[in-house]
Amino acid sequence: MKKFYSVRMRASKDGMHISGAEGIYDKNHVSDIVQKYTGRALSHEKGRSDEISLIIEELKKRPLKISTLPLCTLNTRSPESVKKASVKILRSIGITERAVEEAFKSLSLGITMRGAMLMDIEGVRLEPDLLRGVRVTRMGITENADSILSKKLSRLDLNNNTVKEALILASKVNRHPMILGELCISDDPDYTTGYIAGRAFGYIRLPHIKRRGLSYGGRAFFITGGELKGLIEYLQQTPVIISRINNCRGKVNTEEILRKKK
Ligand code: WAQ
Ligand code: MG
Questions:
Q1: Closest residue to atom 3 of ligand 1, CA basis
Q2: To test ligand 1's pocket by mutation, which of 9, 162, 182 has the most ligand atoms within 8 angstroms of CB?
Q3: pLDDT in tens, 75-122
Q4: What are the extents of the domains in the chain?
Q5: Cβ within 8 Å of residue 53, ≥6 positions away
Q6: Using an 8 Å Cβ cutoff, are 127 and 113 in contact?
Q7: Residues lining ligand 1, judged by CB closer than 6 Å?
Q8: Residue 262: pLDDT above 70?
Q9: Of 53, 131, 196, 200, which has the highest C-beta tally within 10 A?
Q10: Cα 22 from Cα 56, distance rounded (Å)
Q11: Has residue 46 got a pLDDT over 80?
């Protein structure tokens, strides 16, 4: 059997996080990837890292092959319109307005967690470690799927690591039956596009989710039913690799999304 490796990198400077990256690769590609990740850490716009941690781990389980969620961009123009649209869309899949409000509020407090909050449909926090959250790891994309994704995103002028990595993470997360949806705000003060995601409507980019210059951010996973332990194990441990790319569309409005919902 072909051996796969999870390769994960974290870089910091004076103890401050600078960049991170991860993927799943077959053995022949591991050393090239290590070089690529190291290069990325040593020439990051936030400054040159003084400490780079690399984990190269042979996977004991064969990675689960999945598709990306379909991608589109909502025509939002302000944090207020983002919140309104998010409430509408997430409500249509059973997440209460209160939960969505609660998620936006918790993600705007300025306390940045390493991982995601887990929230039930009423907005009650369920993650065991409220400060750290749950960190999703062991995900990647095949070379072939990556080049198809690059082409599709290039047509929309979105071919960058930020969008790709977020789409890969959201596609892994939202594949689990206990996950209803996700809300994400970048912690980068200059990156003002966030997203909501769910199996029913895909990955919906949300321009102007926050105003420029704010360094808060985070993720909330809305969950239902089932056993928390199994879900957390899936998010942290189960290797998942993207092998098929769904459609990537440009601007849409909220009504279109609600009409097309699966
Ligand atoms: N698992 C769980 N939570 C995470 C993870 C992870 N692997 N990585 C980051 N987070 C949480 C953490 O609280 C971060 O502060 C927060 O999410 C935001 O992370 O299509 O860049 O890496 O243009 O800043 C969205 C792209 C970009 C939208 C999101 O997130 C688009 C982004 P960041
Ligand atoms: Mg960030």
A1: 115
A2: 162
A3: 999 999 999 999 999 999 999 999 999 999 999 988 889 999 999 999
A4: 4-61, 65-261
A5: 9, 10, 11
A6: no
A7: 112-113, 115-116, 135-136, 162-163, 166, 169, 184, 186-188, 191, 193-195, 205, 217-219
A8: no
A9: 196
A10: 10
A11: no
